[in-house]
Design brief:
Elements (H helix, E strand, L loop, with lengths): L18 H8 L7 H14 L6 H17 L5 H16 L15 H4 L3 H7 L18 H5 L1 H15 L13 H14 L9 H14 L6 H15 L7 H17 L19 H10 L3 H12 L7 H5 L1 H23 L8 H4 L8 H9 L5 H16 L5 H16 L7 H11 L18 H11 L8 H10 L13 H4 L2 H15 L2
Length: 506
């Protein structure tokens, strides 16, 4: 072994035989013995940590570092860290005339190009002569001993985040994945295989375990960013909201006496972009992430200083806001859904239904999903009270069923508790009995009409037909009218109830 600087070679490095395997491990697509590939690379570096090919084995370990830190088997981490530290010690103080080195730049921008650039480093061509070389740095800078030492430290930091200094701040690989997953959740397109409830519960439990620790700011920012999604109804497990609420309740109490030096408008603007806020929260969890945020600040990419995100008064404020939203959402989703106040909305002074208001509430579900849920639950409860008018009973039952089947998701617990109990009292036995209408019941025929052409909201055939069914003198005859006996057919009603019960049960 020698301490001579690594220099460009005129013959291809032996690494060209392995770089595709390293890239497969980097991208989690390698199908062979990953630990074996890693250990082989480490042994080659250990044989001559300051040799001419040290650059190749070091950069290979950089490519595989995320795998080593996350998935490797027993003994692999220790072996790799030992040889990386040895390489750093041998090379970091060797003579160098370069002002900058590639390792000081953004690794995420370069890492995917290692598979193409590594073989080019020793192909005997200068940057100007090499048509495939696209990196801003020169090959000499890449092959500089101090650059290889720097990349050895970068690999160590990827394997054990925060364990080493003297490298540019970098968001740990695991946190980069967390940021992607969180953004997918708040965008309402969760990463395939990701359980949003479990993910958000994990952050809440971390905050509960250490509500005054160094991770508090990041966790509070994350939970605030995600509270809108959690309370939207997408998560149907009450325990998730309970866990988030329990975690956040301790924050304002712990910061009750916190002082603040910021003036009006100096705290970060939240709720404008929850995905960006969640990303900032992830960066606040680690020294590397905070360093990256400070770099953004220096580059003018962020308006709020890091200290403003860490401000105790700010954290208490957004914790209270998230708590209020989560508590309201928990009650709406899992508490007692009150509908008595809707009597004055859906019942006219004379006691008859304002059928158009009732059907419109369900029709405009896309604008106000809770209003549609409340209208269906109100209709079911009024149906259960047994109104004397058989036509009113009929439309109430149909509206209650429609409020379920018109939605893409099952109703929340606060709605389906009573709704299911009421609909379960309807006799569905006629489904197995002969029916003079066959399969041509009104709702099915309307469904065919809807599939055949586009209807605007004001042309929605279901609402128009129910309005006419209840008040034929008040509302004009809709397209393809049905006789009242077809609507009230026991087979038709049993079918509507059965489909609604299926929707309630998910």
């Amino acid at each position: 072994m020698t301490d001579t600087p690594v220099s460009a070679l005129s013959a291809p490095s032996e690494c060209v035989h392995f770089v595709d395997d390293w890239d497969g491990i980097l991208n989690e697509s390698y199908g062979g013995d990953s630990d074996g590939v890693v250990l082989d690379c480490a042994r080659r570096l250990a044989a001559d940590p300051a040799g001419e090919e040290a650059y190749a084995w070091t950069l290979g370990l950089v490519m595989m570092a995320a795998y080593v830190g996350r998935f490797s088997g027993p003994g692999v981490v220790e072996a790799v860290l030992e040889v990386l530290h040895a390489t750093d010690r041998r090379l970091r103080n060797l003579p160098c005339a370069h002002r900058t080195h590639p390792y000081e730049g953004d690794l995420d921008d370069r890492l995917d190009h290692f598979v193409d650039d590594l073989p080019l480093l020793t192909n005997g061509l200068t940057e100007d002569e090499d048509p495939d070389w696209e990196d801003d740095a020169t090959k000499e800078q890449w092959l500089c001993p101090r650059d290889i030492a720097g990349y050895a430290r970068v690999a160590v930091d990827i394997i054990v985040p925060g364990s080493i200094g003297d490298i540019p701040p970098r968001l740990p690989a695991r946190d980069a994945r967390r940021a992607e997953d969180l953004r997918s959740i708040v965008w309402d397109y969760p990463t395939p295989g990701l359980d949003p409830g479990r993910e958000l519960s994990a952050y809440a439990l971390s905050l509960s375990a250490d509500p005054t620790g160094e991770h508090r700011a990041g966790l509070v920012v994350i939970l605030h960013a995600a509270c809108w999604y959690a309370a939207s109804g997408r998560i149907r497990d009450r325990r998730v909201l309970d866990t988030m609420i329990d975690a956040l309740e301790a924050v304002p109490r712990g910061l009750a006496d916190a002082s603040c030096v910021h003036g009006e408008g100096e705290h970060p603007e939240v709720r404008k972009d929850t995905a960006e806020q969640a990303t900032v929260g992830i960066h606040l969890l680690s020294p590397g992430g905070r360093g990256v945020y400070r770099h953004w600040q220096r580059e003018g990419l962020e308006t709020a200083p890091l200290e403003a995100w860490l401000c105790p008064a700010f954290l208490a404020e957004i914790a209270r806001e998230a708590l209020g939203h989560l508590r309201t959402g928990r009650e709406r989703l899992f508490g007692i859904r009150h509908t008595a106040h809707l009597d004055e909305v859906f019942v006219r002074p004379g006691g008859r239904l304002d059928i158009d208001r009732l059907t419109s509430a369900v029709r405009w579900r896309c604008r106000d999903g809770q209003a549609a849920e409340d209208a269906g639950l109100w209709a079911a409860r009024r149906y259960a009270a047994g109104p004397a008018d058989p036509r009113e009973r009929l439309v109430l039952l149909l509206v209650a069923c429609w409020s379920v089947t018109s939605g893409e998701e099952p109703p929340p617990e606060a709605v389906h508790r009573d709704l299911r109990a009421i609909l379960a009292t309807v006799d569905t036995a006629p489904l197995g009995e002969p029916c003079p209408h066959g399969d041509a019941h009104p709702w099915e025929r309307l469904a065919e009409l809807v599939r055949g052409r586009h209807f605007g909201f004001h042309e929605d055939p279901y609402g128009d037909h129910l309005n006419h069914l209840y008040a034929p003198q008040e509302y004009g005859t809709p397209e393809r009218p049905f006789a009242p006996g077809e609507w009230s057919c026991p087979g038709h009603l049993a079918q509507r109830v059965r489909l609604a019960l299926r929707g309630i049960d998910g």
